[in-house]
Amino acid sequence: xxxxxxxxxxxxxxxxxxxxxxxxxxxxNDKDKLLIDLITYVLERGHYEPKDINDSFSVxxxxxxxxxxxxxxxxxxxxxxxxxxxxxxxxDDQIKNTDISFFDLVYQRLMKRMDEAKDIYAxxxxxxxxxxxxxxxxxxxxxxxxxxxxKELKERWRKQLKYNALGVYDGKIKIQKTAxxxxxxxxxxxxxxxxxxxxxxxxxxxxxxxxxAEVEEASRESTKKTLDEFFDFVDDxxxxxxxxxxxxxxxxxxxxxxxxxxxxEKDKFDIxxxxxxxxxxxRLQKKPEGAKVVEIISGGPVWREKSLEVGDEILKVGQNxxxxxxxxxxxxDDAIKLIKGPKxxxxxLTVRKVDGTIDVVSITRDVVELEESYxxxxxxxxxxxxxxxxxxxxxxxxxxxxxxxxAASDVAKELERLKQAxxxxxxxxxxxxxGGSLTTVVEMAGFFIKDGPIVQVRSSGQRKExxxxxxxxxxxxxxxxxxxxELSASASEILAAxxxxxxRAIVLGSKQTFGKGTVQNVIPLDNIVRSxxxxxxxxxxxxxxxxxxxxGGSTQLEGVKSDxxxxxxxxxxxxxxxDQENPLAWDKISPAEFQEWxxxxxYEETIKNSMERMAKNxxxxxxxxxxxxxxxxxxxxxxxxxxxxxxxSQEASKNQSNYFKxxxxxxxxxxxxxxxxxxxxxxxxxxxxxxxxRWHKDLAKDVYIEEAVNVLEDLRxxxxxxxxxxxxxxxx
Length: 732
Prior knowledge:
Layout lengths: L3 H18 L2 H4 L3 H16 L8 H15 L8 H7 L6 H6 L4 H24 L11 E3 L11 H31 L13 H14 L4 H25 L2 H14 L6 E3 L1 H12 L1 E4 L2 E6 L2 E7 L4 H5 L7 E7 L5 E2 L5 H8 L6 E7 L5 E7 L1 E4 L6 E7 L2 E7 L15 H14 L5 E4 L8 H8 L6 E8 L5 E5 L10 E5 L6 H11 L4 E4 L8 E7 L14 E10 L15 E2 L37 H14 L1 H18 L2 E3 L2 H18 L10 E3 L2 H7 L3 H15 L2 H16 L14
Parallel strand pairs: 12-13, 13-16, 16-17, 17-20
Antiparallel strand pairs: 1-21, 2-19, 3-10, 4-5, 5-6, 6-7, 6-8, 8-9, 11-12, 11-22, 14-15, 14-19, 18-19
Helix pairs in contact: 1-3, 3-11, 4-11, 7-10, 8-9, 8-10, 15-16, 16-17, 18-23
């Protein structure tokens, strides 16, 4: 969201920086040094809470960068670390002087060690593993020291490779046993694709008559193939890709949400926020022989024209009759750049079809909308009552044009459709919604109140700014429940907090939400340099503000505490902002003036009744039990490399996992239906019908949705308002 102060500040920052960097960019031919200079300039002058770049900062960058590029400690030796440590207290000075010698040393050493690692794993995997030996591996590498020498490093690789091969070996033994019993059916055949079933059947035939030694050998070959593919991917990375990691290590010291986007990553960010891009509408996966089509996006050009199918391999790419470029062996990102393009342009693809034939397919590019990013709704029927449900995955927006499709306008449409369908209460599902546009959340909150403040925003060293709903129209005045979980963040927390403070909605979900109470702005670095010979520079997403509830408290770290707390399987896992590196602190400011809504005459009673129901619900108890087990599994980092012990442990975990599969057998007995407009689309789009059928099937198993309906039912019974009550509005 662009606020008056921030917008003016950023314009000033860019204007000053343009003068500062005009000549400097031509003095240096090193793009990396220019990036360091630009980014530190922006961080020091634009970040909400800039940090001193000093020795302490240097140590943090040093430790974090080494950890990021060698997290399992399988590349660097102790002697490497001793050499790197000469820079431990110098990185701050290097940053100020645009010196990248620390990065250069670490990068060059990493490339050397990775080349050596190829020989290490290849030689280890030539020899059989003895799965009868009593030994174990700790898969938590954090406190493990670096290998003292190459012999110790090779032993570390041996254990890791044995662990990997052991898992493959166990899987193959299970398939072999199944094949010998004359069946290769999956435990859950309805969840397994035909392609996967064919692969399982083919492998079963191959394994059926193998000796254990031959199965062990096949497991090593499979492990080697996986590693070969990984190192092929690493070989595709350019030096610049590693440098971006270094830049983001520096940037991340300021806070977890300040981030540098390389040019192609900025494009992906814009796509994720808008939910659309211009291209052909197919997801691709890199293969040695080209780019394989792994998914066709419903509604895109490929889907409409039926020009490609899943499994086709793109070999060459041409632009509207021009000579085609061979993409075999090309980086997938580079191949995708050739395939994507502006709406209305034509791309020629040389394709090896699934049947093996080679064909040239011409496709007219168009805007492809990623429907899974957008709001969707359904009606929920319980007995003779009908309620509405809106699922909102993110607060999306088109940065270039707010009048285009965005989260607020889509939710407004769904609200109207649900009212027309006769919904008597509304569930707004913000679970797993990581946020997005602040503009859309302020507008959306206004749908549920008459007028009044929604959120308070403060920039560094400035007075707070109040974001209000000034439109007195109320789009939805019925009962409202907002669903949240630990991954509901940022804009989701603003909406949930505002509705909670007004007592306009009951918030149901995890003990507390993610706890992201900061605002970011994206600054294109190309706008800061008046003239640049180094090509695109990317952008930086910069934390420029903090937001606060209208009651004055921050959601930073603390999140939003649910009115009705319901456990989920992640209740004991460290997921929130408080578990991130370098988060900003919690604080509070003065509250805004607002008036609680008195439309629910049984608000507290409804919460009390729900909590009593949840305490007695066996499904909730099972979820709580599952959450504790998940935490125990995460904390258990020692794994036996003896097959019998490994198998016993795996079987115990499998049995416990199967025990918790009962969670998916739950049936709420609720009925879910698509709205009329969507049902009309099903005749033209069977893929959409299938997506909605699956969604409704999942919703019927969702105890949180069921309880939200119960809460709406209670509110409806008691919420026939006092004639003098007002929907939430500013005092006076």
